[in-house]
């Protein structure tokens, strides 16, 4: 009886923790702050595991960041005019490959994490008539120059939830830069060919940079 009571209390306790940890996706500014704090706390706590197996960073990205990223919208926006006349199966393949590429890219960026401080800019005023907003973040990386970022988020009209779809680093949009980089091959060889390249890039192991000699 006592054992059953203890198990029940433990179950309730962990259920409460899960509920308390839920992120409200209808509040983009608070959502980004919560997601960042949770992700960087995990990075700090699991550094020994990450150092032993850098590919574990892909798991962290998948679990902590991707639920708040609209990778499908980002992929379609990136394809742009290349969507015209495209086969549905090729587009689906590209969306899946782009998601894997994002996970791998974010994971590689996180190898640079060394307990930097993150400062959020002022909370933006949301215009009910607009579905896009930007949230500015500055990474304090002393003695190196600070890194200025802006995350672009889009609101789903049905659910009212916000998800990130682009990141602007020092004034350069990730989506725009990748669109310029891949547009030639998309036009010449097609969506499936670029999707294949993305899969190969995503499959590469995560590596820490060798220390400067």
From TrEMBL:
Signal peptide as annotated in the record: 1-20
UniProt key word Ubl conjugation: no
Keyword Calcium: no
Record key words, sorted: Signal
Domain of life: Bacteria
Protein name according to UniProt: Toluene tolerance protein
Organism name: Vibrio hepatarius
Lineage: Bacteria, Pseudomonadati, Pseudomonadota, Gammaproteobacteria, Vibrionales
């Amino acid at each position: 009886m006592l054992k059953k009571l203890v198990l029940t209390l433990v179950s309730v306790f962990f259920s409460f923790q899960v509920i308390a940890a839920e992120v409200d996706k209808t509040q983009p500014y608070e959502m980004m702050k919560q997601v960042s704090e949770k992700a960087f706390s995990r990075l700090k706590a699991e550094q020994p595991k990450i150092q032993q197996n850098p590919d574990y960073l892909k798991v962290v990205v998948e679990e902590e960041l991707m639920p708040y990223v609209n990778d499908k919208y980002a992929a379609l926006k990136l394809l742009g005019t290349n969507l015209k006349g495209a086969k549905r199966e090729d587009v689906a393949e590209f969306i899946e490959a782009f998601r894997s590429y994002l996970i791998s890219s974010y994971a590689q960026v996180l190898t640079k994490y060394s307990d930097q401080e993150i400062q959020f800019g002022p909370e933006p005023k949301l215009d009910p008539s607009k579905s896009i907003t930007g949230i500015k973040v500055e990474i304090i990386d002393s003695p190196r120059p600070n890194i200025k970022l802006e995350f672009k988020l889009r609101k789903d009209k049905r659910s009212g939830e916000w998800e990130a779809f682009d990141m602007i680093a020092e004034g350069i949009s990730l989506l725009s830069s990748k669109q310029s980089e891949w547009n030639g091959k998309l036009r010449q060889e097609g969506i499936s060919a670029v999707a294949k390249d993305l899969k190969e890039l995503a499959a590469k192991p995560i590596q820490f940079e060798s220390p400067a000699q």
